[in-house]
Automatic annotation (TrEMBL), chain A:
Coiled coil: none annotated. GO terms for molecular function: cullin family protein binding; ubiquitin conjugating enzyme binding; ubiquitin-like protein binding. Keywords: Nucleus. It is found in: Nucleus. GO terms for biological process: protein neddylation. Neddylation of cullins play an essential role in the regulation of SCF-type complexes activity. Residues 20-208 form the DCUN1 domain. This is Defective in cullin neddylation protein. It comes from the Eukaryota.
Amino acid sequence: MGDRSGVRRFSKTEDTSSPFNQKRCITWFREYTSPDDPDVLGPEGMEKFCEDIGVEPENVVMLVLAWKMNARQMGFFTQQEWLRGLMDLQCDSISKVQSKLDYLRLLLNDQVTFKSIYRYAYDFARDKDQRSMDIETAKAMLQLLLGKHWTLFGQFNNFLERSKYKVINKDQWCNILEFSRTIANDLSNYDVDGAWPVMLDEFVEWLKASKDVRRS
Amino acid sequence: MQYWTCQCFSFHELHFSFLICKVYVQNCFYSCTMSLRPRRVNFNEMWVGLQETVKGVITLDNVPRATWNSHFSDIYAMCVAYPEPFADRLYQETKCFLDNHVKVLLEKVRANGEANLLKCYHQAWVEYSTGIGYLHCLYLYLNQQHIKKQKLSDAEVIYGTLGPDTQEQMEIGELGLEIWKKNMVEPLKENLVNLLLEGIHYDRLGEASPNITDIVQGVINSFVSVEDYKRKGKLELYQEIFEAPFLQASGEYYKREASKLLQECDVSQYMERVIQRLEEETLRSNKFLHSSSFDKVKARCEQHMVADHLAFLHGECKAMVREERCKDLSNMYPLLRSVKDGIGVLIVELLEHIKAQGLETVRGLKGDNVHIQFVENMLSVHKKYKELIQDVFNGDQSFIGALDKACASVVNHRPNPKMACRSPEMLAKYCDSLLKKSSKGISESEIDEKLAQSITIFKYIDDKDIFQKFYARMLAKRLIHSQSQSMDAEEAMINRLKQACGYEFTNKLHRMFTDMSVSSDLNNKFNSFLKLDNIDLGISFSIYILQAGAWPLGQNSVTPFAVPQELEKSVQMFENFYHNHFSGRKLTWLHHLCQAELKLSYLKKPYQITMQTFQMAILLLFEKTDSLTCKEVQESLQLNSEQFGKHLMSLIESKILLANTEAPTPETVLTLNFEYSNKRTKFRITAALQRESPQEVEQTLSSVDEDRKLYLQAAIVRVMKSRKILRHNALIQEVLSQSKVTFAPSISMIKKCIEALIDKQYIERTPNSADEYSYVA
């Protein structure tokens, strides 16, 4: 399949203004699946797909796309999910998807949508055998979602590294977003006896202690 | 025929005897029975004579009985006169007469000059008030039948609005007083009050002249008496013309006193003088004033002598408490208590002081009997300050509260914040030492008393659940190894704990106890069973059956063990016996806790040694041979290395067995020591194995943590189930109040439990609120 992709990418024969065609969409899907498992797009297919649309697999846009599809497992799309997402976007070809990439990025700017995507990311990225997400995956996902906009992210990352936490549960995950949105950088409005998860209490304590160290 | 009842009018200082009136009435009765019919009356004529008598009565002149009687009936006649009654006219004439009379009196009183004013006024008052009382009786008929009927009801007076023109007629007694007030008191009030204040002032300075007291008191009283008949506002006059200026003057006086004393005295002397002054003022008030003023005067004095100088007094509190200056403190207490916000500082100082003293006594304790020192030192601190509070502060509850807080703070103090408090463990050890058999020679009643006192400390402990765990373990040891001094004492202690903490707390302890008595019962049954079937076990054998849930022995500590041949029959027999009695119960043998008595007959002297079962098992292998390798022994017994090593070492250390290497290896050869000798022929070698190891302590403490988490989670679920939705702070408060009986959870621990429950999906955060939870059904 590798050779054909080069030809495909530079082909200008597709028309981005043609109406959405389900059959074409499914046929396109089949290019990424193997005969043994025609209904599921796996890691190999994913790699190719990303190459085709010109997006790195770790790019946050991929997460938004997966969210549109309501994909269950990171690295995989079922045919149902593929169809659901792309039908919503009205895309059945590479160029059409490429034209929607900016739109997908912009979705992240809306608070409500972002929250939904953020929460979705937890179930999406975690190992389905476990109830909680392992710490490494969590750090990567947090970097992806909050790295750019949350000032304290770097500190939080350090904190996680030094802590003995091996997993992050959903409650902690959701509260991290709330924390990033409501707590001031100097932590002045943080109530340690409030309903925040203990992990965040510990983060605040750690941060305050390290500030004192730096000051002295 | 009419029948009068005499109503008597008595004033404060007057002694109007009912008897006199009664006599007059009776006479009246007799003399008037003739002339009860209304008839024509010549008022003017009658009035002339009556007026004379009125004058005589009011001036306490001698009025003959007959005259009195005749005018008494004249009044009656006037009131029922035909065709028109003269009641109103009589009233008016009398009023007029009294009015003039008092005006004349006023001139007389004034005539003798300022210096004698009080005396003259007083004299005039005494005469007048007595007289008016008699007059009131003379006018009985008018009062009862005429005036009373016109009176407004009480309710109308109190709640209604009386206009200034309400010219209600008053009974003669009241009328007289009203006239006195208007014509005598009003004009003289300023002068009188000035003189009164002067008189009291001199009394304060201790320069009062002896007879002035009665006069001053009498005059002040007149202000009260003169309005006594009023249905509302009885003390208005008194308060307005006398009390107010008096309080003012007193206030000024106290202010000056206070300033003077402050310059001359230190705190101790100041307090003594103030207390003295307060006592004097109380006596003075009693002497002169109306009772309604007592508290007001006291409050003024306290205000100016204590409240105004609170900072001065508070400043000394700290030093006073530290140095435990009891005399000063017992003065300070009533003074501070009498003013607002006065006593708080003293209470706080005491709390801090007790805390410091307490911490001092329990800091840096060393040695084997740290636990005894800890408890006894705490108790002596507690006792000392309880007595002090009793003596100096009259057992005041707020101070007892401070004592409790201070003691709780000392008892729960953690020298190292990261480590748990050692007090629960120490208290448990203390109780253990008292309940264990010992040769210390303390009497039973002394032990009982000490145990009772230990409850005082117990109540202060926050981590009561930790205490319970340690106590349970030590109790288990005592019961199993028969180390209890007295079962009664054990039971009494458990009951004390139950009283302090409730049934839940001591439930397991009680069960452990009953197991002991059930076991002894069972042993008897077993022995009878053996006798019955003529079974001989070859050894004597007794058993404790323990309920697994109640004893803190831990199933995990059961190690594999091959029961020695000598014991097999007994074990088997008992198991059969037990299962016949109780089907469906599982028996787990705890050999590691058992002991045996072994007789050694291969030595010069026979020895009877009490030892642990594993030790005995090792020695029994040498029944038929003198030496064995470690490997052989361990394999025969199937003990794990830890148990084997421990018990073997103890036999080697006690020299009963010899080993041919320093440290035992599987190849080490063990031989019986045929040269073994001991001064005593009957002894035990179990002691070392029974002592509590640090790991056991650790284990206890960490198991407590686990229990607490479960407890908190159960509490949270309970609360959430009943409330359905609850805010974070409210949930925390609920959980804290529920758990404080057994321990004091940290908020962080409660939060962790909440999170665990969110994770397990028992509760969830409500979607739109940051700090609210809801129960997941």
